[in-house]
Structure formats: C-alpha cells, structure tokens
Input
Amino acid sequence: MSTQVLAIEDAKTGEVTEAVYEHPFVVRLCHWLNAISLFVMAGTGLQIFRAFPSFGAKIPEKVLIDWPKSLAIGGWLGGALQWHLTFMWIYMGTGLIYLGYQILGGNYKQVLFVRRDIPGVWPMVRHYFFFGPKPPIREAYNPLQKHAYTSAIILGGLSVATGFAVWKPIQFSWLAWMMGGFHYARLWHFLTMWAMLGFVFGHLVMVVLHGWNNFVSMLTGWKKDPEYIAK
Amino acid sequence: MSSRIEKKKFKSMNRRELLKLTPVLALGAFAIPKLQAPLLRMGLGFSDWASEEFFRPGHLATTFASSELTPFNKFPINDYDVDDPGVDFDRWTLTVTGAVRRPGDYTLAQIQALPRFRQNTRHVCVEGWDVIGRFGGARLSDFLKTIGADLTARYVYVECADDYYESLDMATALHPQTLLCYEMYDQPLTREHGAPVRLTIPTKIGYKQAKYLTDLQVTNVLARVGYWEDQGYSSFYGL
Output
C-alpha cells in the first residue's frame, strides 16, 4: 500500500510541512464507535457484576469487590443488561467492520505485530519507561505500539468469545466448554475486561504524553510532520 | 509520491474529514432521556430476536455427574416475595386454559403418571451465580400433548401461587429437557423450591423457571410476559 503524503504550503510564509494520511475513514469511524461502546460495555458490565460480586458459590455469598455504584452504568441489573445487550452489537459490528476493512485493504500490516517486530520491543520499553535512547522510528507504529494494538484486537475477540460463553453457554456450549464451563467463562469475561481497560489506560496516557498530533490524526486521518518521514 | 497543497485547502479538507465522523454523534441519542428507553427496548428486542435464532430445539443442555451436584442445602432459594405461599396440596390442581382441546384442572397424580425424567443440569441466575441441581419431573412437551395443546401456538404462559407469572416460547416448551418438575435431588419438591410443581428449563435463565405453578395457558398473545420481563429484563433469555 502506498502511503498518501502531502506537502502543505503556507501561502504567506512559504513554509512547507508534510502530512501523511494515516487513518482511513472506516478505521476512524470504527475507532470512535468502538471506543464509546467499550466504555458502555465496561460500565454496564460493572453494574451487572454488582448483582453478584463474586465467583464462588451463591451460598455463602462473598463480596470480592465492592464496586462503587457511581462508576457503573445502567442504574440496576435489568437496566445495565439492556445497555449491555444493545451496545454489544455496536461493539461487535464496529470490530468486525474494522477487521474486514483492514484485512481486505491490506492495511493490517500497519498494526499487526509480527516476528520481526520482536527485537524492537525492548528498546522501545527502555525508551518509554527507563529513559533510554529513542530508537529510530521507521513506520507509523513502533514495535511496542504494534504489540499493544495487536493485543487489543485479540482482547476484543476474547471479550466477544467469553461474552458469548456467558450469554449463551448452551447454544455455544463448545465455547463455554473451552473456558471451563459457564462459571469460569464469567471469570474470563471479567478478566478480559480488566486487560482491555489496562490497554485503554496505557493508550490514553500515550495520547496525553505524545500527542495532539496523534489525536487529530484519528479525527481527520491526516498526521502532520510524522517522525518517520525522511526529511 | 508527495503532492503539494495550500495550507488553507488542507485545513478545509481536514474539516471535511472531521465532519464525516458525525455519524458517531448519533450514539448521543442514547443520552436523550426521551429516546433512551425506546432505543434500549429496541436493542434488547434485537438481542431477544438473535437469541431465538440461536436456539436449537434438538441441542441438549450439558448434564453433569452426581459428584458435580451442588449440595441440596446450598441450592439457593430465590423468590421475589415469599418462600412459601402456603399451597394447599390436597386441593391443588393445575388449571389449563387457552388453545387446548382438553382444558380443565389437572392433578399432581395426572402429571406424575407421565414418563418421569431426571437430569443434573446447571441453573444460571441472571445475577451471575450458577449451581448444578438434580431435577425430576414430566416433560412439558408430554403434558402439552396430554392436554391437546395447539403446538403451533406461540407461547405457554403460567401463573403461580405467589402471583408470579412467566411465559415460554413454544420451541423451548417442547424442548426435551423442559420439565414440569416435582422432584429435586430425588425427593418430592419442597415448599421453598416451588412445591408441588415448578418449571425446570435448563436452556433458560433462572427467572423463567417459575415455582408453585397454579395455571397454565397455551396462547398466541401475551397480555403480560413475565414478572421480571415486564420490569425490563429480557423476554427470551435463552442460554
């Protein structure tokens, strides 16, 4: 895939900056719809969890985590289920459209973490967390970013698979069986959510630290002055 | 590869790209109080429709070994009102009405005369807990044939001694593991668990499994769906 690059010329000063078209419309649309639905799914999921905040037997009921109601969405179990069972279609729909678009368009190479990215992970980690030198940036996403995004996509798939095992443990008994039955499927669904929220946290921290430029590119598609363009 | 563009043009192009994302704002409709309830009802309705599509009449719920059973005294007693609505066992009958050829009052003996099935199945509560119990009783499908029910009708509706009420789609009512249950753990049903007869439906969520049955109606139209459903829970909730 050839990347679209523009040279932007300021008519007054004659200054030229470059911009790259990083995110096609479909990707941006799916990103934001998915972000909103993930927010709703997590919030209502926590409200649903409040109905039985445990993974043991019903008797005696042990409260594992007393989740504050203020951070939950839906008001009550029935309300939260309505939101959850509504937004899961948006969550899955945008996920599927994104995947289909990336695979068919060949754009997936931008985010897919592959074997040749492995050696680049540690230098990036050293740079981000231990003030190491900044490795040269050659692509839109560095190896650590690719790792994060690929993980998020896998977590998205897992959240749907574990969710179906909780929602339909009989019609999708093979899914529930793979997870050790309904009882454990519920636990995996819960843990997948936390892993996903972990990704979101890191993602937001990076957006705050690195970049208005990145944020804008997810809105308009265009990224001004990306580091990876040879000057 | 790189083409030139004037800054002004670039800015207006960016604005156009941004405007393309306005469909995202449509989700804001969920934040408008007036629209929220109908939208969520549509969403839940869509999920119920999908649930019905996912349901396979011949697919059995997983059954378990006796060693996997939740001990009887750990099987939760859940009800919305009272543990024991005080059913008079001597005078109890199941009153059958609706699209059936032989309506009337059916006794426990008549139900027990039908072939008895025992199964160890998982009971899943909408709250999230689950237990594995041993249930025994007559197949609801056998009973529906006994009363000459119109099996093309859409629903089986039941009412209970504690004024609870529930409904089942006909496909689930005819499922071989759907029982008119009068035994748990090989003992006659206790009052707290819904004596003399309750529903056991391993392919449905817990609140569908009504206890202390008194009335059964075969119908195409539901005036009420169920106690919890009418407060906003899923109408179908198949597992």
The mean pLDDT of chain B is 93. The longest helix of chain B spans residues 33-54. Helices of chain B lie at 7-19, 33-54, 108-112, 140-146, 170-173.
